Amino acid sequence: MPTPESRSIVVCHLGRVPYERARGLQGAVQERLIAAKRAEPPQTVPHVLLLLEHPPVYTLGKSGDAENLLVSEKRLEALGATFHRIGRGGDVTFHGPGQLVGYPLFDLDRFFTDLGRYLRTLEEVILRTCADYGVTGTRVDGRTGVWVGPDERGLERKICAMGVRCSRWVTMHGFALNVTTDLTYFDHIVPCGIDDRGVTSLVEETGAPVSVDDVRGPVTDHVADLFGAKVTECRGVDARAFLRELTGETIEQ
Predict the structure, then answer these.
(1) Which of 10, 56, 90, 240 could disulfide-link 81, Cβ–Cβ 3.0 to 4.6 Å?
(2) Which CATH number fits the domain that encloses residue 233?
C-alpha cells in the first residue's frame, strides 16, 4: 500500500522556460524516477510537478497531422514562435505566455496504474480550478482536456489542452491551461486537430484580472487533494537547486 512518503510531490515553480529546455528536464526527471524504482533496493524519490510558462511555441504530437499547422514554419518564426514534433499523445497545440503549463512527472505505480484514470484526474484538477473562478468547465466525450460550454456564448470552447506520455508507469508532458493567453496564436493551427470548436481562457470567460501566478495555488491544492499527496513547493533558485540535485540538469534563469 502506498505510504505518505511514497506520494510526496515537489512542485517546482520555474517561471518562463524555453520549450526544449523543459522537455529535456522532463526526460531527466522521468529517467531518475524509473531508475529509482528499478534500484535494488528500490529508492523513494519524490514525484515532481513542474509549473511554468513557455515562450510562444507550437508542438505536434506523435499521432498528429502536420496539416493542422496552417502556416509555414518560416511564418511561425516571423511570429516569434518555434515548432517542435514531440512524443506525447494528441495533435498540434500552442504554448505561450499567459498559459499555465503543468508537467507532472509521477510514478503511477505509487498512485494507480490506470492511464485513463490519470487523465480524468488531471481534468478534474482543472475543472476544480476553473470552478474556483466561477467558470463551469466540462468534459467532452472522446476529446481529452477541459472545455467551457455550450452556453449562451456559443459551442464548446477548449480552455485546457492535455497530452501525456508514460514509460514504465512514469508520466511526462501534461496540461496547458489558458489563463491570459493571446488566443490569436491559435488562429495558425487546428487546435488539437478539432476544427469545429474554439478556444478560450479564464480571462476571456470571467473578464476578471486573473493571472498565471494567481492560478498556481489552486492547481497545486487540487493536485494534492486528488492524488492524496503531501506537497512541497519551491521557487526560483530553490527549485533549480532541487532539480539539479535530483537530475544533474541545470535550469537557467
Answers:
(1) 56
(2) 3.30.930.10
Lowest mean pLDDT among 26-35, 89-98, 168-177, 241-250: 89-98
Q: How many domains, the chain?
A: 1
Q: How far apart are CA 79 and CA 220, in angstroms?
A: 32
State the catalytic residues.
192
Cell readout for 18 is 524555453
Domain of residue 130: give its range.
Answer: 5-247
13-23 pLDDT, tens per residue? Answer: 999 999 999 99
Q: Are strands 9-16 and 231-235 parallel, antiparallel or unpaired?
A: parallel
Please tell me the distance from the alpha carbon of residue 198 to that of residue 191, in angstroms, as a whole number: 8
Tracing cell 489563463 back to the chain, one arrives at: 179
Which residue blocks in 108-251 are alpha helix, DSSP H? 115-132, 202-206, 212-226, 236-247
C-alpha distances in Å from residue 149, one per residue of 16, 101, 135, 138, 206:
30, 22, 10, 7, 13
